[in-house]
Amino acid sequence: MNTEAARTTTPHDDTPAQAGGSSFSWVAHPAREQPGRLIVAVIWIAATMLVVFATTNSVFWAALTIVVLVFALNRFFVPSAFELDEEGITARYPLRTRRYEWREIRRFAHDSDGGYLSTRAVPSRLDAHRGMHLLFGTCRTEAINEINLHLVRMSPSGELAARASAELTSRRESA
Q: Which of 8, 26, 70, 149 has its CA at 20 to 30 Å from residue 84's CA atom?
């Protein structure tokens, strides 16, 4: 990816955007990116709705079941946008927006399903309330590299910066 070129992204375009090298953004839409999981989710919702209708014989409760399940799975069905800038990261989820400054981040974990930025240095039961879940979409490698670059530059924790730097170096060598 050419980091010098200015590119933009729209909610329907999950290509990463870089504006003059100062910010990086992407959109993740799991339902569109994972059609197999979408089929499973739709079948599961329909089956649950049918069970509710069969047991209650009520269209109201069946419809409410659909609404509740789609609401619960909103990050899967509706696109989420993420933007990294010099000061921090902003996540625009379907139902809320969340922002953290780089100086607040103490831990960055990621796997094949996504990532997690935490304000706590060690894993805790409070993690669900003290951090940010990331969906990388089709921009996984670029997003991880950009986050690691910011953590190396901005993290107050030398250990976190060293881990991010080591991971970034190993990714560059393997590429």
A: 70
Q: What is the DSSP string of 119-173?
A: SSSS--GGGGGSEEEE--GGGHHHHHHHHHHHHHHH-S-HHHHHHHHHHHHHHHH
The C-alpha atoms of residue 171 and residue 82 are separated, in whole angstroms, by: 22
Q: Residue 41, Cα to own-chain centre: how many angstroms?
A: 19
**What are the 10-residue block averages of pLDDT along the chain, 175 residues in total?**
30 45 87 96 97 97 97 95 94 93 90 89 81 92 91 67 54 56
CA-wise closest residue to 143 among 172, 110, 107, 119 = 110
17-29+80-174: which CATH topology? PH-domain like (2.30.29)
